[in-house]
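Internal tracking record. Fields below are filled automatically when a chain is submitted to the structure queue. Please do not edit lines marked as system-generated. If the sequence contains nonstandard residues, flag them in the REMARKS field before resubmitting.
Queue: standard
Priority: normal
Entity type: single polypeptide chain
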Amino acid sequence: MILIGMAGVFIFLLTVEKGLETDRPDLNSGSVENVPGRDAEISPLATPIGQITASFGELEPISSLLVSQHSEIIAEEYFGSMRADRGHNIKSASKSILSILTGIAIDQGYLEGTHQTLEEFFPDYFANNPDSVKAGITIEDLLTMRSGLASTSRSNYGRWVTSPNWIEYVLDRPLQGTPGEDRIYSTGTTHLLAVILHKATGMNTLQFANKYLFDTMEIQVTGWDRDPQGYYLGGNNMAMRPRDMIKIGQLMMDVGEYEGEQLVSREWLVSSVIPVTGRRAGIDDYGYLWFTRSAGGYHMVYAFGNGGQYIMILPELEAVISVTTFNNGTSDWDYRRQLFNRIDREIIPWLEASWKTDGDPQSESPDHRFT
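SYSTEM-GENERATED OUTPUT FOLLOWS
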């Protein structure tokens, strides 16, 4: 079955998003003929996809690379000591899964909506530390990294995770921006989101995820850190198998549907991939904990974790890519550049050619899909 809902979402986004370049090829035609580096006379299908993905082992930190198209895994590579049955720490890519869980909590009635504020969930803290601005920070502010609170990430991360109370540490952080306007990337703010899910549902975040998402999809979480109070870490250090990362990407592709069951509403997933800009310079291609980028002339939604952990969704090509990297505690931006460049120039042309030969492309062209 070809699942086409998310592609139409991106045709809609062409008219609203501001974070991607405007001189892309015509997406409605399914053509990327003008992408630099393409040779129109040589079919990308001349090289097997498995041969292409195997060559990515040259990118030394990489530990796995899986490619799925039309809901089937078509290439699966493991490098070094990585194995198919081994869970991998996906770092901050777990933030994007937290976004899905927030949507489910709203769908199931545990949360009223993204307008709810911190004061509703941390009343004791604000009774002892009155601050009307902090108290008014909303769930949407947490989802878009626009809480305004000083970051607990990067150079501040060590001090945060060695503190005796991670929740209070985050809430005690000074305001360095205006909530709802200024984007400041911080794992501390997504940790508050995980704690809110715990408080609202009466289940810890893993129990909630298992009940409404993971068990149904047969996804195994092989590890997940907790804070000193026992709350699962919101937005970091979740471990799962690469095949399960592909399942998460496919759920996005299918706009929340899994084997005929709607696990999370289409409306939520559509909202979650629309970039929400912040007033300050910074990440302007960020929705509800999902990134977007232009990849080889196509739209890509992706989850990103430190060191090079990715779940990539290419709706117009009905494809999902997962990447894991041996964690070294740092982000290697040269590796990221090489990885993206090779995906854009080697894997995406193959997926495009495969999509075009999978029947009449015009009969399922993006402009005829869900909007």
